């Protein structure tokens, strides 16, 4: 799996107004004390967490989710946090545990949580709506910012391309928004030959993402080893590693996205568990 950490290099011009900030270490139990009057005010600031894999055998699922809730609460207390996005694989092949995830963890964070299915959630549209109150394909509007959430799997856990008609109608609906983000658990492109079994290849989706200049980025989970950015042309696809499960980056963490008042965008990855070993390999 480590081979999938290879990144496709590209110039910073490909970020289309997004600034990549360096990854930071942040200990969940010790939020930075901030004077409310000195806080920077953002048009929108949110966190993306993915791949909690609650219920995976021989893992500390409860600790992983308790930690995640603590990290999000610390972000909320120390800075502006408008919402949290849970980008798939909330549970590990146990859709019956989704209600517990919502009631015992997501509902305790203190800000709205918007989730999209992953391949290990095995939830159909009816179950997803029953648990979370919205469809598995849906949109969220925050003023002149739009967020499009699309399902990339099915109840069998197979990788599928997101519903092209849904994406098209959503992008058209948001074409006058200043900023649009797209949330897809499984990336719609295979960058490396060895990823054929891990990602999907959806050329029509990629073409559609490139068609709307106000779509600034797509955000993906799924591959726990990826915590940076890849590109299709000049369009950025961001990853956020994982906060649960038994494989991936040596640390567990999440991604922060900040939209400033002038619509410039900053994003960075947080090493929440403070694990100093990065890119460890055995030869």
Automatic annotation (TrEMBL):
GO molecular function, one term: hydrolase activity
Keywords: Signal
Signal peptide: 1-28
SUPFAM superfamilies recorded: Metallo-dependent phosphatases (SSF56300)
One of the Pfam families matching this protein, by short name: Metallophos
Span of domain Calcineurin-like phosphoesterase: 44-225
Entry superkingdom: Bacteria
Signal among keywords: yes
Annotated PANTHER family: METALLOPHOSPHOESTERASE, CALCINEURIN SUPERFAMILY (PTHR43143), SERINE_THREONINE-PROTEIN PHOSPHATASE CPPED1 (PTHR43143:SF1)
Protein name: Metallophosphoesterase
Organism name: Mucilaginibacter myungsuensis
């Amino acid at each position: 799996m480590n081979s999938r950490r290879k990144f496709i290099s590209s110039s910073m011009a490909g970020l289309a107004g997004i600034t990549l900030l360096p990854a930071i270490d942040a200990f969940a139990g010790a939020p930075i004390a901030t004077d409310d009057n000195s806080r920077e005010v953002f048009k929108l600031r949110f966190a993306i967490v993915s791949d909690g894999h609650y219920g995976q055998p021989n893992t500390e699922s409860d600790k992983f989710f308790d930690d995640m809730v603590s990290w999000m609460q610390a972000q909320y207390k120390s800075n502006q946090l408008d919402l949290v996005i849970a980008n798939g694989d909330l549970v590990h092949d146990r859709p019956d545990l989704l209600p517990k995830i919502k009631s015992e963890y997501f509902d305790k964070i203190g800000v709205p949580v918007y989730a999209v299915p992953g391949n290990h959630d095995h939830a159909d549209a009816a179950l997803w709506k029953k648990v979370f109150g919205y469809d598995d394909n849906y949109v969220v509007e925050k003023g002149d910012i739009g967020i499009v959430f699309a399902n990339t799997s099915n109840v069998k856990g197979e990788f599928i391309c997101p519903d092209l008609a849904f994406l098209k109608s959503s992008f058209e609906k948001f074409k006058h928004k200043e900023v649009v983000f797209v949330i897809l658990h499984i990336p719609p492109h295979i960058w490396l030959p060895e990823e054929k079994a891990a990602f999907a290849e959806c050329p029509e989706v990629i073409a559609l993402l490139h068609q709307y200049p106000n779509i600034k980025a797509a955000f993906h989970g799924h591959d726990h080893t990826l915590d940076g950015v890849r590109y299709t042309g000049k369009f950025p696809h961001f990853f956020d590693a994982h906060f649960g499960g038994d494989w991936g980056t040596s640390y567990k963490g999440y991604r922060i996205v900040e939209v400033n008042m002038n619509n410039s965008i900053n994003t960075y990855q947080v090493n929440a568990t403070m694990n100093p070993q990065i890119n460890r390999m055995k030869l």
